[in-house]
Write a structure and sequence with these properties.
With 237 residues, the protein is an all-alpha fold. It is built from eleven helices and no strands. It folds into two domains: 178 residues, no CATH class; 53 residues, no CATH class. InterPro entries: Brnchd-chn_aa_trnsp_permease (IPR011606).
Length: 237
């Protein structure tokens, strides 16, 4: 059986990654609009996306910045939201750990949810895929996702300057979070984590600078992990 070339594998990744642009683009546009509404200029908005490269963390950081939270709180909150990327990295390490350093550094920067989902599934389905093809597929999936995110952010920023101040879009931010989190509620552990996080977040609104959200997030993660362990114990004889 003849193996596909690196070029063909790259374009296979591009094709697989294109549908995710349709999913992420609306959030990129929304972020650009809200950031403009919050007073950020075009360069600041683009820099925001280039540096953070994660929708949920960007929305979190933006909200805290608009609330005049201390820088340390903004950074800690964005980091907490992005901790899942550490697990993604660990999951791909057996496949890409032997890639050249430059490739691994670039992959670390581009490792976002859709890219992980696609590459992990592909690597599991084809465990004997040679390293060059694994690298080519990774960057193929990442290309449309990253370009789509940056482009949609710029489009949102441009649209935001055209929206009159009378039509404030503050309500859109919590709706965006609900839209992102809703489809992820697939298991009992997810539901338990979400329930505890919501209860804690509402109960700790008195804490300054939104730090109650950090506590709520930690409580939700611990609850979800505990429920998942309990489920595994029931399955294991």
């Amino acid at each position: 059986m003849t193996l596909p070339t690196e070029n063909a594998t790259f374009w296979r990744g591009v094709v697989d990654g294109l549908p995710f642009v349709l999913v992420s683009a609306p959030f990129g546009v929304l972020f650009g609009v809200l950031a403009t509404e919050g007073g950020l200029n075009l360069l600041e908005i683009l820099s925001f996306s280039l540096v953070v490269v994660a929708g949920a963390a960007q929305f979190t950081a933006l909200q805290l910045m608009l609330d005049n939270a201390p820088t340390i709180v903004v950074l800690a909150s964005a980091l907490a939201v992005n901790l899942r990327l550490v697990m993604y990295s660990a999951g791909l390490a057996p496949h890409l750990g032997g890639a050249p350093l430059k490739a691994r550094l670039a992959a670390a920067y581009m490792l976002v949810d859709p890219v992980y989902a696609l590459t992990a599934a592909r690597y599991d389905a084809q465990p004997s895929m040679p390293m060059p093809l694994k690298v080519a597929y990774f960057f193929g999936t990442a290309a449309p996702v990253m370009i789509g995110w940056f482009a949609s952010t710029l489009i949102g920023a441009a649209l935001g300057t055209q929206i009159p101040e009378a039509y404030a879009l503050d309500f859109a931010l919590p709706i965006a979070f609900i839209a992102m989190a809703g489809p992820m509620m697939r298991t009992a552990a997810h539901m338990a984590a979400a329930f505890v996080a919501v209860v804690l977040a509402l109960s700790l609104t008195w804490l300054p600078y939104g730090t109650g959200l950090l506590v709520a997030g930690l409580g939700g993660m611990l609850t979800g992990a505990r429920v998942e362990l309990m489920q595994r114990e029931r399955i294991t004889p």
